[in-house]
Amino acid sequence: MTSFAISAQHLARSFGTTHALVDVSLDVPAGNVCALLGRNGAGKTTTVRILTTLLDPDGGHAQVAGFDIATQADKVRGKIGVTGQTATMDELLTGHENLEIIGRFSHLGAAVSRRRAGELLQQFDLVDAGGQLVKRYSGGMRRRLDLAASLIADPEVLFLDEPTTGLDPVSRSEMWAAIRNLVSRGTTVLLTTQYLDEADQLADTIVVVDRGLVVAEGTPEQLKASIGRPSVVVTLADAEPGALEKVRAALGEDATIRGRSVSAPAPDGLVSLSEVVTLLEGIGVPIHEVGLEHPSLDEVFSAVTHRAGDPLPGGHPADATVGAAP
Amino acid sequence: MTVATIPAQNSFLSGAVDAYNATRRYLIRGKRQPDIIFGSVLFPVVFVVLFGYVFGSSITVPGGNYHSYLMSGLFAQSTLFASANVAVAVATDMNEGVIDRFKTLPIARSSILIGRGLSTMILGLPALAVMIVCALAVGWRPENGIFDAFLGFLLIELFAFALCWLGILVGLIAKSSQSADVLINIPVFLLGFISNVFVDTSKMPVWLRVFANWNPVSSVVAAGRNLFGNTIGPAPAGVWSLEHPEITTIGLAIIIIAIFVPLCVRRYSRTSR
Asked: A56 phi and psi, to 5 degrees?
């Protein structure tokens, strides 16, 4: 018995000649929120479809809530809730009917299904809309109903595939609040997202996937730290090549030229900054600005999902805490 | 949180409950699409009146009433068209996210399809009733009495249920509802017209006649004619299927169900699309 709510080893899946998943492994401890972060086509949805028993992997294996997805698919289905990327609510049924039928299909029985449907409509602020056909719902209401439906049997593990894609900012923050509320009750969540801020806001751990591979994983803080220490950026008054080269040479081997700026690692933060200022005084180049830059999750993302062979922005190769793809 | 799932002690019972719930869902959906019900009720009216008068008025058969002779065929043909509608509906279903959600729920794989089949039968009953009324209005009479007529309709409904699974399979195989529409029309027309619906099979060329005689449509039509008392002349001599159309209909329906239901469930369960 594993202590992980989700444990996947070396999942692979191809569609014809398209290798949607090459090698994805991930472990999510019970009660944690894991964000699968990646661009469109990175393999996020394929991973979710495999873990929710909708798709068989070509290779690898996985356990969800302690059950094997291949040999105990029905047991897995009894423990999970899934909110897919596409709307999964029946437009011709009311919100209440939709929830009730999912409850019945989760084998809650008719009475409990009705009670749970009522509770969830209340919890997701859909009481007034509960008796209306879903085709009259707004996008945000549909997503909330979809999330409510995946909670009807009180799942141990919840999968949310891009839960906020296409939502307006207000609906998005409502969705975030709903997800945080679930997490506070101990539900394990695997969510996929293309949005860094969403991963940063909600997740305990982030797994970055790119072209079917895990290219980085860790807590948001670890990922930020992995891409780098802060760097000092020196912007010159003019983009004069000689002057730029002079500054670069002065700042040391790791310094790189970007436009009319030179940036160099600043491992000691402000101390490094003042050292650089002292250095610059000695070389007599007109300086426009000197500043300290902290890496953002955006930089982590673009660094680790950069195409192999391309130079990494900032010139910092992903270091040891970033789990490089095998 | 206290949400106790009822443990599935008996997988057959639990599957039956799933199928019941799926049927219920399709019935609610059906009720919300009055235009489809309206169309399905109107269609047989047009059908009976059109065919009844167009063919019934111009074709005369010795020793009988072609109008009445035709009616059993029209009942059977309407079940063919119903299976075509099922194919399109299933193909539409499969392209909606809701089926993906159902596949992540711990329900019997067959239940959604059984629900589709049973609800189609139930939602088709008003159309059948209207069709019977129309038939009576244009002069058709069940000559053998109510009980035999009831048995006749029971056979037609059994046949309709079997045919429904052909529609479901085509709907599952088709990539879109348009392609389902195109694909299902091939078997529907072959079965519908290479049969005894409009004409006696005995004058067809041999190769066509063998198909027509063993076509389940022919046997259900012949069974209907027998039970409604609308036969004209004796059954073609030496053709076992048409001499015993009731047994043939039941047998072929069971064979169709036994073959197509597992194929449909397998196709539905196939995880990759």
From this structure: -85, 135
For residues A241 and A212, the answer to whether their CB atoms sit within 8 Å is no
Q: In whole angstroms, what is the distance from residue B82 CA to residue B87 CA? A: 9
| B271–A56 C-beta distance less than 8 A | yes
A106–chain B Cβ distance below 8 A for any pair: yes
Q: Per CB distance under 8 Å, which residues of B are interface residues toward A? A: 1, 3-8, 14, 17-18, 21, 24-25, 28-29, 32-33, 96-98, 100-107, 271-272
Local structure of A188: helix, strand or coil = strand
The nearest CA of chain B is from the CA of A153 a distance in Å of: 6
> Using a CB-CB distance cutoff of 8 angstroms, which residues of chain B are in contact with residue A108?
3-6
Q: Which of the 8 DSSP states describes residue A136?
A: G
ipTM score above 0.90: no
Which stretches of chain B are assigned E, i.e. beta strand? Answer: none
Element (H or E) spanning A7, and its range?
strand A4-15
Q: Dihedral sign, CA of A222, A224, A228, A230?
A: negative
CB contacts of B18 in chain A (<8 Å) are 105
Pairing label, strands A59-64, A256-258: unpaired
pLDDT 10s digit of each residue in chain B, 273 long?
445 454 545 688 888 999 999 999 999 999 999 898 888 888 888 888 887 777 777 777 776 778 888 889 999 999 999 999 999 999 998 888 888 889 999 999 899 999 999 999 999 999 999 999 999 988 888 889 999 999 999 999 999 999 999 999 999 999 999 999 999 999 999 999 999 988 888 888 989 999 999 999 999 999 999 999 888 777 777 888 888 999 999 999 999 999 999 999 999 987 554
